[in-house]
Each structure stands twice: as structure tokens, then as C-alpha cells.
Specification:
With about 350 residues, the chain is an all-alpha fold. The chain has helices at about 1-25, 35-50, 55-65, 65-95, 100-110, 120-165, 170-180, 190-210, 225-240, 250-265, 285-300, 305-320, 320-330. Mean pLDDT is about 90; it is low at about 345-355.
């Protein structure tokens, strides 16, 4: 009876690992997997211990840059260890010998070494099954790594392009000012369309392959989260503060970004209000908003004279994604950027540099 219970427990462990692997890499849907999440949480705690010892953000960034890639390498090791333990229990239940012989049989089968031949047909079938699972787990990881890095490169190409248009760190005021100076303000709908496609892409890739959320940009000052916040704030300022014809594409970009970031935040169980009121509080203050609008006016952009109405409109747009960008910035340890990662985090604002 004891052997039956142990065998069933071992089979359950092996089945749980197989389900975890399939849901992590194969199922194209945001399905939380407890084993995968446990591995990433445990790894994150260890990396955070090292990161907190760093003296500055650059040091923390260097530590956390290895977090997601290293954990992806550790994950199949954990899977293999669990399968090894599960089939050890199964072989012991099949009475191949003492626990040591069962472990030897399981290891020989899992890694297809063949130095411990199964004694009968049932154990042979179990050995074939374990070998198939072991090879399948490694094949899954190897097959999906190129997919992940392709999605990462696609994401980062758009993020890097934003640096040219909005500075580093990217700010909505800089994006609008540069567009105004080069007479590109009328072509902003092209930007909104590009970022709508980008938001849809990250909503799909960063939930079905959740580790991508923690892959850091090649440059420490870049982040997909701060880039998202910059584009959404730029669209909100364009609609609320500029005295120009209404731009529906900007509103669609805000809606697309909000929905996409909600999917990612929901996957990581980040708190947000799915139906906020336009007058709910936001992390951007009225003084900060007025400062940016004054800056836009000083650069010659046509700003609305009714500043109160402009603030109400901006707050009404921002409230949709405010908790999303700030929550994701904290989760991913995003670099400093105004109105996103600096909200409630211990970032020291860098000194302003005068233009030459």
C-alpha cells in the first residue's frame, strides 16, 4: 500500500512538471503556473539581496540584468530534478530494488544514459516515458528561446527609437517639443499607430512568455515600462493641453496601451482599478502638469488657455493607466523617468543639464 501511494505521488509530481512546461512555453495564453512562478520568485529574492547591496542604480541594473536569463536556465534544471524525484518514487513503487537502485534507474532513464537497464516490461515503459519527458523539456526550452529573443529584439527596437524622439530618459514634453521644432507635429498619428501595434505585441508576448517582462534593455537608461509611460503621457498631453484639432489616433493609442498594460499587470497580480473615475487621484500633481505646459508654451507650442479644463482632461486620461505604469515600473525596477518610475520610489532626480 505504501508503494502504491509513493508511486502515485511520484506520478503526480512528474505530471505537474509536464503541465507546467506546456503552460509556460506552449499554451498561447496568460495562465499562471505555480511551479514556474515559485522558481522565479525564489530567484528574484536572491537577486534582490545582491541588488540591494549596490550603491547606485547602475549597480542594481547590472545585477538584475542577469535575473530573467539565469532563471530561465535554472527553470529546466528544477523541472528535471522534479522529474528525477518523481520517477525515482515510481521505480521504487515498481519494486526495482532499494531507493538507491530506483534513483539510479531514474537517472539513467532521464538522461538516456542506459547504464541501468529496466528489469521488466513495466519498468521499461516507465523508463521510455521518463526519457521522453526529459528530452521534451529541454527541447521546449531550446525551441522557445529564439522566439523569446525575437520578441525581445522587436520590443527594444521601438524603445530605442523613442530615445531619438523623446530623449533619455524619455519625457512627453521633449517628444512634443522636438516634433514641433522639426514641423512633425502633424505626423504624430504615425507614432500613435506604431505604438498601438507595439502595445498589442507586448500584451501577447509578455503574458504568454512572462519572463520577457524582466528582460532588461541593452542600455541601462532604457525600459519598456518608462517608454510606455512616456508615449501614453504624450498622447494625453496632446489631447488635453494643446490647442490643436482633436486627434482620435492619440485616444486610440491611450486605450490600446491601457488595455495591454492591464493584461500584463493582471498576470502579475498588480492592483489597479479596472473602471476608474475621471476625478480619481493620480500620481502626477497639478504643479507638475502646469510646469510641463508652461515649458511647452515657452517653446512656442499652442497650449489651451483654460488651464483648469486642460488639467481635468489630462487627469481623466492619465487615471486609466496611472497605477499600471507606476506598478510595472516598481515590479521591473525600471530606470529613472519622470512621471513613471519616480512615483513613490527612492530615485534621486538627476540634475538638469543646460543645453550647449
Amino acid at each position: 500500500m505504501v508503494r502504491v501511494v509513493v508511486g502515485v505521488a511520484g506520478g503526480t509530481v512528474a505530471a505537474a512538471v509536464l503541465v507546467s512546461a506546456v503552460r509556460t512555453f506552449v499554451v498561447p495564453r496568460a495562465i499562471p503556473v505555480w511551479l514556474t512562478r515559485a522558481v522565479f520568485l525564489a530567484s528574484r529574492r536572491m537577486f534582490m539581496v545582491r541588488a540591494n547591496r549596490a550603491d547606485d542604480y547602475e549597480g542594481r541594473d547590472r545585477v538584475m540584468a542577469s535575473y530573467a536569463p539565469m532563471t530561465l536556465i535554472v527553470l529546466p534544471v528544477v523541472w528535471l530534478v522534479c522529474v528525477l524525484a518523481g520517477f525515482t518514487a515510481i521505480f521504487w513503487a515498481l519494486d526495482v530494488g532499494a531507493l538507491r537502485e530506483a534513483f539510479r534507474e531514474s537517472g539513467s532513464s532521464l538522461f538516456t544514459l542506459g547504464f541501468a537497464p529496466p528489469p521488466d516490461l513495466v519498468t521499461t515503459a516507465a523508463a521510455f516515458l521518463e526519457a521522453t519527458i526529459g528530452l521534451g523539456l529541454l527541447a521546449l526550452l531550446l525551441a522557445y528561446l529564439p522566439t523569446m529573443y525575437t520578441a525581445f529584439s522587436r520590443r527594444e527596437a521601438t524603445v530605442a527609437m523613442l530615445e531619438v524622439r523623446a530623449g533619455s530618459p524619455p519625457t512627453p514634453s521633449e517628444l512634443l517639443i522636438r516634433a514641433w521644432r522639426i514641423d512633425w507635429i502633424d505626423r504624430l498619428p504615425e507614432l500613435w499607430a506604431d505604438w498601438q501595434a507595439w502595445f498589442i505585441d507586448i500584451a501577447e508576448t509578455h503574458t504568454s512568455l512572462a519572463a520577457l517582462s524582466f528582460f532588461r534593455s541593452p542600455q541601462p537608461q532604457r525600459s519598456w515600462v518608462t517608454a510606455s509611460g512616456c508615449v501614453l503621457d504624450t498622447a494625453s498631453l496632446r489631447l488635453a493641453a494643446l490647442d490643436l484639432p482633436r486627434e482620435p489616433d492619440a485616444a486610440l493609442c491611450i486605450r490600446t496601451g491601457t488595455v495591454s498594460l492591464r493584461h500584463i499587470a493582471d498576470y502579475f497580480s498588480l492592483p489597479f482599478d479596472p473602471d476608474p473615475s475621471p476625478d480619481d487621484p493620480i500620481t502626477v500633481t497639478r504643479d507638475e502638469f502646469d510646469e510641463v505646459v508652461d515649458h511647452l508654451a515657452a517653446e512656442g507650442l499652442p497650449v489651451r488657455t483654460d488651464r483648469d479644463a486642460a488639467w481635468r482632461d489630462f487627469a481623466g486620461w492619465r487615471v486609466n493607466y496611472d497605477a499600471l505604469v507606476t506598478g510595472l515600473a516598481g515590479l521591473t525596477m525600471a530606470p529613472y523617468a519622470p512621471w513613471t518610475s519616480d512615483r513613490g520610489l527612492a530615485y534621486r532626480r538627476p540634475p538638469l543639464r543646460r543645453r550647449a
